[in-house]
Design brief:
Length: 304
């Protein structure tokens, strides 16, 4: 009998499955980019080594592809994308004009910052939007994400594995954060991005994006918003209500419709994952998101 760990990196029983299938992850992803930008060296790394300003949605979709593969992909797919990411990072450098020094993109400190900004955003946004995870489940999610950190080259034992450890990490790193001109430009851009060529036909509807960008901004920690000062403050309850409404609407979309936001290769990977899970007894008639319901797992179906 095939073991579940040979089928997907994180099984449907994991806390990661609950978080990463929640559609408020789109808000969390942009929020993570805004938070990452506060680390001066990490921001320079993006500024100097990517086409982020020309294709912000491309970067978000590539991040979604990585997250998807190290969650729902097979171990072989996760190993492959991990090797690819580590190879790319190994070749890239960051020039700091303030000091004249050159830094490696794969510096463990920078990799850890990017990881923590991302996964803390995923966890905090989905929970605030209404995903019912207990404190124990939230800690479990961060422990599980140590595996994802290993794919980019971090040692799992160096990565926060609980909410308490994550809070302590941010307290340690905050004195090193600041709003550089690049960070300020990034947040302005994420609030009002330039559409890529393939989406220029949607330009007339671009004003509808701003409420989404503002929602991402307002989910940032208070200390990060105070650093940026990009938008006036609004009541916390209003932000939470808006996030819950976005989550409800996004989660109501049929999976095939929602998944068109991903790159074709990501969609193929997700379809292959569903097929493998279906072959060993999971009820995948409602797609991967349907497997957040334990009644669709093999043991439940057998008992029925």
């Amino acid at each position: 009998m095939t073991a579940i760990e040979d089928i997907v990196v994180q099984p449907p029983q994991s806390a990661t499955w609950q978080v990463h299938l929640d559609r408020s992850m789109w808000v969390a992803g942009v929020r993570g980019l805004m938070l990452q930008a506060l680390h001066p060296l990490a921001m320079l790394g993006v500024w100097q080594n990517s086409n982020f300003q020309e294709d912000p949605f491309g970067r978000l979709r590539r991040t979604a592809d990585f997250v998807g593969r190290v969650t729902f992909g097979s171990p072989q797919e996760a190993d492959e994308i991990g090797r690819r990411v580590r190879s790319i990072h190994k070749a890239l450098r960051i020039h700091d004009p303030a000091t004249g020094r050159t830094h490696r993109v794969d510096d463990p400190e920078l990799l850890l910052w990017v990881h923590c900004a991302e996964v803390s955003s995923y966890l905090e946004v989905t929970r605030r939007g209404g995903l019912g995870l207990s404190e124990r489940q939230a800690d479990r999610y961060l422990r599980e994400q140590r595996k994802s950190a290993a794919y980019v080259g971090l040692h799992p034992e160096d990565v926060p594995g609980s909410c308490g450890e994550m809070d302590a990490y941010f307290k340690r790193v905050r004195p090193r954060l600041r709003v550089t001109p690049e960070a300020a430009a990034t947040v302005r851009f994420l609030l009002w991005p330039r559409l890529p060529k393939e989406l220029r036909l949607l330009s007339p509807g671009k004003p509808a994006y701003f409420p989404f960008g503002a929602l991402c901004y307002y989910t940032l920690p208070g200390w990060a918003r105070r650093m940026y000062g990009a938008l006036p403050e609004v009541p916390r309850a209003s932000v939470t209500a808006a996030l819950a409404a976005f989550r409800l609407a996004a989660n109501s979309l049929p999976e095939p419709v929602h998944d068109h936001a991903f790159m074709p290769a990501t969609r193929d990977m997700l379809h292959a994952s569903a097929a493998r899970l279906g072959a060993v007894g999971y009820d995948v008639r409602k797609g991967l998101k349907g497997l957040t319901d334990p009644r669709r797992w093999p043991q439940a179906r057998s008992a029925a």
